[in-house]
Amino acid sequence: MGKLSVIGLGPGGVSGMTRQAFEALQGCELVVGYPVYLDLIREDFPEKEYFSTPMKQEIERCRKAVEEALAGKQVALLCSGDAGVYGMAGPVLELSEEYPPVEIEVISGVTAACAGAAVLGGALMHDFAVISLSDLLTPWDLIEKRLSLAAQGDFCIALYNPSSRKRKDHLKRACDILLRTREPETVCGIVRQIGREEQEKRILPLKDLRDTEVDMFTTVFIGNSQTKQVGEWMVTPRGYHLGKG
Amino acid sequence: MGKLSVIGLGPGGVSGMTRQAFEALQGCELVVGYPVYLDLIREDFPEKEYFSTPMKQEIERCRKAVEEALAGKQVALLCSGDAGVYGMAGPVLELSEEYPPVEIEVISGVTAACAGAAVLGGALMHDFAVISLSDLLTPWDLIEKRLSLAAQGDFCIALYNPSSRKRKDHLKRACDILLRTREPETVCGIVRQIGREEQEKRILPLKDLRDTEVDMFTTVFIGNSQTKQVGEWMVTPRGYHLGKG
């Protein structure tokens, strides 16, 4: 009997994976995923069979994974970050209803909100919201509404997909919404290529973030009203008394 | 020169850690943390020196970690889940300002929101908010405000610290706030002892969650208006068209 493991790769390559995810990859025969993610593990697992489809063909990928598991294979469906945060865990479970029963497990990984917050120091230490600025699958109105409510609630915010080729102004529009409620000096951070060799980070106030161009490999962090810069770090205090007494 | 690695253990024990976190533990001499978390790794790292303080003495723990690193030791400060989500990354970076410069790195782990969502299937697939119901360090008014705004925004919500010995009614009060905006049939989930042997999960509507007793080892998930139960799974759709055509 086959089995389908939906695996979050975490940030970067194999060193960011959990041991559980690594062992699931070791035990599988076929790895299915977006080409870029497959390339991150190919060297460590040269003997596997690989199957990929280009961007926007996620559902074909999910179907292939389910069908091969049903045919008896041990299959890994690989996602970047966490499979349950804008990943493939949901679609594959929804799809699986159309097929005969098949064993599925979801193995989580470190999502960019957590990995990027660590690069910045402690960007999200308190209550936070995760919002994608991609309007491919979500109406822009709903994205705006969520930005506005998260700002009103003084949540720390992690923004996924802050830019795309077609809509370069998403981050600027998001910042304008946040600036209705939040101070222009709110401490923000951007992290690019988290966990990879090209990793870069920058801490800057919200008013400057508005006019900063970012690419699709960037995760953006908005601090809450208490967030501060400590040396090179972005830190959101949680309310501990730090005094010795 | 010593170094301080602030490490997120992920859910459960060593198998939920990232390889990077595991290697940082291997390379350290002293492991500092809350006793329960130290016990999760002691067997895999029997040769280390350990230092712990009881609950509510987190800051003493952080000071010890910084001071030992300054004295030249390789120190690991261990947190459950992710060190940057209600963990020690923030406090230790804030504290470090009082001391001479010391090398610090933060290594993220899988936080309970992601690990629990995976146990449930795909509970958080869309925009989500993470809110702690603990009012030890946060005024209850602010927690209520955030619950209300997250509900209005139709965010998926992960609730940390849903119960404590002193305030058993936090979850009920939170549900009452959510029920002002969200349907009583909203699909919710609870996961207990994520990643450990005693792991348990349950899917239930918001109106039943209100009257459910949970303990401090539980993470609670509130779906958005689209979240559904698919077989044994809790799944929030992201908007993909699943059809073959």
Question: If you had to describe this structure to a student in words, what would you say it looks like?
Answer:
2 copies of one chain form a homodimer. Chain A is an alpha/beta fold and 245 residues long. Chain A has 2 domains: 3-107, Cobalt-precorrin-4 Transmethylase, domain 1 (3-Layer(aba) Sandwich); 112-235, Tetrapyrrole methylase, C-terminal domain (Methyltransferase, Cobalt-precorrin-4 Transmethylase, Domain 2, 2-Layer Sandwich), CATH 3.30.950.10. Chain A has 8 helices and 13 strands. In chain A, strands 3-2-4-1-5 form a 5-stranded parallel beta sheet, sandwiched between helices. In chain A, strands 7-8-11-9-10 form a 5-stranded mixed beta sheet, with helices on both faces. A 3-stranded mixed beta sheet of chain A has the order 6-13-12. In chain A, helix 3 packs across helix 4 and helix 6 (140-152) packs parallel to helix 7 (170-179). The longest helix of chain A has 13 residues, at 58-70. The model of chain A has no long low-confidence stretch (mean pLDDT 95). Strand 7 (128-132) of chain A pairs antiparallel with strand 7 of chain B, so a sheet runs across the interface.
